[in-house]
Amino acid sequence: PLHYFLNSPDNEVVLGFNGNGSTLFYYKGKTLEDGQIFVDTFRQNQQILSSDPFLGPVDAITSITAPHFLDAKTILFASRRPGGYGGFDLYQTSYLNGQWSNPQNLGPDINTEYDEVTPFLAPDRKTLYFSSNNSHSSIGGFDIYKSIYNPKQLQWSLPYNLGLSVNSAGDDTHFKLARDGYTAYFTSNRKDGFGARDLYVAYFYDYQKEVSAN
Is residue 175 a contact partner of residue 208, using CB atoms and an 8 Å limit? Predict the structure, then answer.
């Protein structure tokens, strides 16, 4: 267990780190939908812990809508805030000039009238994985999709379903690529699990170039 300053009788959930791993973003709350996001800096030599409330415009809900901290300056998250396309939509906020920008909806190429959740933006900053329960293209429940951003056209490609090799008739969410470019991790409540949501690993035959920052 980590330090008692971090852990408590409440729910603590790791959300992400900054680029060099010196800052931890985590959630603390009585439930997974009633809490707050904190920022913790741990200096190992001095054993000093300092947790402060995160002041960005990100919804503090970590169940199926946990935010994705690409680094200390870019966050993607799902929200039902007004002005969306229906259900949960994906948004992005960036840290510029000492403050977090107003969240920008990723638009109708990504978001639908259904729920889009658990985003993962690869290190190349243009390859997006997320889950959606879009009944028009889902195999069942939430499936994992992939889309690539075209900076010249300022547009996301049509998201495509990763298919049965990864997705199932259950809910498949929280997809993340590992740094090796061949491995990915995600959660699923498919029938062959041990009960409720389990952790799964997927292996790719080909190297996924998006793990390399451009």
Answer: no
